[in-house]
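Here is the promised in-class demo. Please do not try to memorize the tokens; focus on the logic of going from shape to residues.
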């Protein structure tokens, strides 16, 4: 029964027949009627979504076991690299026919962000599918869909008997949602990573509510800055001079004025996208012990996201001068400071981009190349010289990552499998680069 229906689904997803139903309202036409009719790729996706890899205590063991089983089913080798105690990077490899060429790295993270269960319409770890075909789950968009799409695209291509010159590695990494410090940041420094000889990587992007697909070619640099102001303490009833609060207020005003300037720059230029300007938010205020005690120390924490074209040395000097202008005893420290922003070229001088965008053009997909406003594991890959694109093939889909009721329509998910089924042959067949001959 399932086999017969699978055949039907595969024909629907065949080459050049991608999503023949154009408007979003036609999603329901590709919806399964009941569990017995569900596409097996969707069933696999829902199984993966049920694994509780939720921060701050992800069940990584269950995810790794799931991936090992996928490797077994697909006939792929599976390597486990423990980059820190309990933090395993799982690598599934489909060898290419020409081992002298660099490889394609398909990256996804296994962890997901926490939920506020009371705000969800369905249990976020049940992977409930409603009658229209929407799958509700934490990780449905970010980014368990992509892990399964990679696996299912590879499975289809292998079943069809394809082989490509370049090796394809699928890396499944932990810890991304808390910064990747125990995941990709360590992995790229390991000999096991060097051995992969990654020439190009795909990683996560973002859903796009329009007909177009977002693709990230760079990221803003996260700078988390804590400003500490010290001043004269005393009784809350007095006019004390040189207080910590007064000086902190000055710095906060300078930074919020800068925020306003960047916001206006974004608003007034329709060619600029959010990732192209520097953003900042005041995210923490700390200090004080009682209403009537003027504290000697107060601090403010900011989440800066610095655009990739900003001179970082000059930007740090700007921070310094805002603090100095506020008075004596105002200092800053970094909670996070990324200083290696890289841009993956999006013109035909980059053969990886030519292959990626060429497939999208053939499939009639409109791309919106942008700078990622947030930070993903792509930054670690680009920093070690691997060009990377952030791509989550979800158009006509509201951006619901990290949100309540994160969900993805099964037809969009399946179309994503089709898209990778076309992308992988092109990327894994990019001819030898000058550096490889
Ligand atoms: C800077 S480490 C934290 C990483 C996190 N990534 C995402 C995608 O939300 C962020 O940008 O805040
Ligand atoms: Zn993510
Ligand atoms: Zn995330």
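The designed amino acids, position by position:
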């Amino acid at each position: 029964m399932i086999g017969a229906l699978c055949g039907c689904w595969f024909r629907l997803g065949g080459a050049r027949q991608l999503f023949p139903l154009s408007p979003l309202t036609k999603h329901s036409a590709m919806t399964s009627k009941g569990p017995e009719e569900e596409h097996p790729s969707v069933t696999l996706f829902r199984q993966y979504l049920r694994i509780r890899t939720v921060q701050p205590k992800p069940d990584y063991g269950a995810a790794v076991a799931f991936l090992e089983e996928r490797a077994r089913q697909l006939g792929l080798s599976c390597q486990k690299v423990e980059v820190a105690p309990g933090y395993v990077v799982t690598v599934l490899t489909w060898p290419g026919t020409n081992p002298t060429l660099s490889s394609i790295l398909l990256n996804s993270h296994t962890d997901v962000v926490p939920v506020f269960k009371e705000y969800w319409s369905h249990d976020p770890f049940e992977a409930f599918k409603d009658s229209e075909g929407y799958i509700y789950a934490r990780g449905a968009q970010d980014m368990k869909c992509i892990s399964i799409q990679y696996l299912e695209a590879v499975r289809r291509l292998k079943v069809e008997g394809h082989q490509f010159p370049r090796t394809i590695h699928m890396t499944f990494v932990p810890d991304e949602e808390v910064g990747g410090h125990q995941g990709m940041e360590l992995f790229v420094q390991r000999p096991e990573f060097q051995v992969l000889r990654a020439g190009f990587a795909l990683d996560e992007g973002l859903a796009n509510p329009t007909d177009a697909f977002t693709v990230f070619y760079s990221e803003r640099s996260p700078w988390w800055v804590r400003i500490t102001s010290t001043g004269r303490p005393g009784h809350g009833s007095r006019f004390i001079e040189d207080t910590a609060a007064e000086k902190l207020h000055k710095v906060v005003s300078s930074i919020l004025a800068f925020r306003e300037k960047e916001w206006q720059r974004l608003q007034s230029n329709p060619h600029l996208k959010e990732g192209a300007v520097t953003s900042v938010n005041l995210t923490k205020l700390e200090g004080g012990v009682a209403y009537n005690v003027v504290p000697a120390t107060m601090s403010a924490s900011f989440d800066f996201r610095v655009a990739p074209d900003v001179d970082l040395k000059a930007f740090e000097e700007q921070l310094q001068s805002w603090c100095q202008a506020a008075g004596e005893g105002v200092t800053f420290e970094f909670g996070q400071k990324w200083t290696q922003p890289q841009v993956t070229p999006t013109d035909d001088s980059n053969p990886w981009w030519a292959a990626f965008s060429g497939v999208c053009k053939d499939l009639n997909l409109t791309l919106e190349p942008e700078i990622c406003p947030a930070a993903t594991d792509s930054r670690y890959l680009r920093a070690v010289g691997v060009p990377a694109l952030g791509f989550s093939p979800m158009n006509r889909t509201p951006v619901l990552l990290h949100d309540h009721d994160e969900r993805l329509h099964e037809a969009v998910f399946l179309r994503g499998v089709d898209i990778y089924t076309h992308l992988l042959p092109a990327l894994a067949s990019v001819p030898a680069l000058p550096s490889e001959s």
